[in-house]
Design brief:
This protein is an alpha/beta fold and 436 residues long. It is globular. α3 crosses α4 and α5 crosses α6. It has three domains: 165 residues, Adenylosuccinate Synthetase, subunit A, domain 1 (Adenylosuccinate Synthetase, Chain A, domain 1), CATH 3.40.440.10; 93 residues, Adenylosuccinate Synthetase, subunit A, domain 2 (Orthogonal Bundle), CATH 1.10.300; 169 residues, Adenylosuccinate Synthetase, Chain A, domain 3. Helix content is 32%, strand content 19%. Bound molecules: guanosine-5'-diphosphate (GDP), 6-O-phosphoryl inosine monophosphate (IMO) and magnesium ion (MG). 6-O-phosphoryl inosine monophosphate binds next to α4.
Length: 436
């Protein structure tokens, strides 16, 4: 089976882009199956540093076809700008980028509607990226979406947009926001569509043929498992399916083709936006992780919330997606930490027995769907000694400091999933295979 799915095992920004870029050197197809330009995937390779939101991270291999599946929502301005960035780096995407006409289009009203809800929620707001994701997916599932294919036909587009503006402009009036003009949107979207229309073609047939030939296919998720709309910390989540199961629907690839599921997890934890985060560090250790890991959002520039690795949550997300392995990234960020903690379970706030050897409380309540339960929990930790040596130039597992090796082995024992590779720097080469 030739399909590998790469997903985030935490709350996003786990370095999926780096891992996909690495794997894409051997890939025939790289496909994105969910999310939109709320994602920001950084790759550092021979062409430079790229922070792409929509283009699959197979772009730098001239032999790799990049596919954007129907599960993705497209902001045309972002996509056009990315294609230009890639072109300016001397990489041709000609004939290599396929965007499904089924993809829904982010319209100018989507971020505005999102803003209305965020402001109305006040202190309880989600802390979204402001890219209109909730509203564009809401329109999609309530049969009010506009797809790329619709942009080709002006009359049909005008009719669909007219209905949407009738409703959305009434809402804007209520909230003192300037109404949007139908003709302006039609002109803008058609002009943008004209720039990419050769790439808008359904990749389904191409992908099916590739599957028959046992081609190597990598499917790249956006966001992280704990932001999944069904399984994440709802309502502090995103609008799409971020777990491995989403790859099948989002690209039209049947689950039976998927042989490998790589969950990308940081060696600690970060989160952007609001919502429960039991192992969050609000002290100097949190600040040390933020500085050492350069933890500032790719899309919004917001400081990311930082905390210790939460093994119990990653054990859960590993089960959710049937991860065959985990890629443990940013291990080097822990290089300067004299003591490192790992969350192994929970107890109600104020009731933790600090030296309990292992977790007494597992995620049963969370499994019942109650994300607020997590907010009322304190993690139980184990503490290990840090290695206090640089790992950034290490390329073989045996050459890692013994304590760093022990940390990796402890993590895989706790998450009940093998760690297949460890990353110790942003560059493609900074990767260490983990022996079995
Ligand atoms: P993604 O959204 O999952 O692709 O992750 P992001 O690109 O948003 O965030 C990961 C950040 O960590 C990027 O700035 C990467 O360049 C950087 N990065 C990736 N792997 C490593 C690593 O092993 N060590 C360090 N220090 N940085 C890394
Ligand atoms: P990548 O692919 C980290 C978070 C937002 C917010 C919540 C909902 O780079 O890992 P949305 O704009 O999706 O409606 O926001 O989800 N979020 C991400 N956090 N990485 C991402 O993507 C994210 N995409 C969305 O911060 O909390
Ligand atoms: Mg990111």
């Amino acid at each position: 089976m030739s399909v590998t799915v790469v997903i985030g095992a935490q709350w996003g920004d786990e370095a999926k882009g780096k891992i996909v870029d690495l794997l894409s050197q051997e890939a025939d197809i790289v496909g994105r199956f969910n999310g939109g330009d709320n994602a920001g995937h950084t790759v550092v390779n021979q062409y430079g540093t790229f922070k792409l939101r929509l283009t699959p991270n197979g772009f730098s291999n001239p032999r790799t076809i990049c596919v954007i599946g129907p599960g993705v929502v497209v902001n045309l301005a972002t996509l056009i700008a990315e294609i230009e960035t890639i072109r300016q780096a001397g990489i041709s995407l000609d004939g290599r980028l396929w965007v499904s006409p089924r993809c829904h289009v982010v319209m100018p009203y989507h971020p505005l509607v999102e803003g209305i809800y965020e402001r109305a929620k006040g202190a309880a707001s989600t802390g979204t990226t402001g890219r209109g994701m909730g509203p564009v997916y809401a329109d999609k599932v309530s049969y009010n979406g506009i797809r790329l294919a619709d942009l080709a036909d002006e009359a049909a587009l005008a009719e669909k947009l007219g209905v949407q503006l009738k409703v959305k402009n009434a809402l804007f009036k209520l909230f003192n926001i300037d109404e949007l003009n139908l003709q302006n949107i039609i002109q803008e979207k058609q002009a943008q569509f004209a720039q990419i229309k050769e790439m808008v073609r359904e990749p389904f047939g191409l992908v099916q043929e590739a599957l028959r030939k046992d081609a190597r296919i990598i499917l790249e998720a956006a966001q992280g498992s704990l932001l999944d709309n069904d399984w994440g910390t709802y309502p502090f989540c995103t609008a799409s399916t971020t777990i491995a199961g989403g790859a099948a629907g989002g690209l039209g690839i049947a689950p039976r083709w998927v042989g490998r599921v790589i969950g990308v997890a940081k060696a600690y934890t970060t989160r952007v936006g609001a919502g429960p985060f039991p192992t969050e560090l609000l002290d100097q250790d949190g600040e040390a992780l933020r500085q050492a890991g350069a933890e500032f959002g790719t899309v919004t520039g917001r400081p990311r919330r930082c905390g210790w690795f939460d093994a119990e949550l990653v054990r859960f997300t590993a089960q959710l997606s049937g991860m065959t392995e985990v890629a443990l990234t940013k291990l080097d960020v822990l290089d300067g930490m004299p003591k490192i903690k790992i969350g192994v379970g929970y107890c109600p706030k104020g009731h933790c027995k600090s030296d309990l050897p292992g977790s007494e409380v597992r995620l049963a309540h969370y499994w019942e769907g109650d994300a607020r339960w997590l907010e009322a929990q304190e993690p139980e930790y184990i503490e290990v000694d840090g290695w206090m040596e640089s790992t950034k130039d290490v390329r073989a597992f045996e050459q890692l400091p013994k304590l760093a090796q022990a940390y990796v082995r402890k993590v895989e024992q706790l998450i009940e999933t093998p760690v297949g590779m460890v990353s110790t720097g942003p560059e493609r080469e900074a990767i260490i295979p983990v022996p079995r």
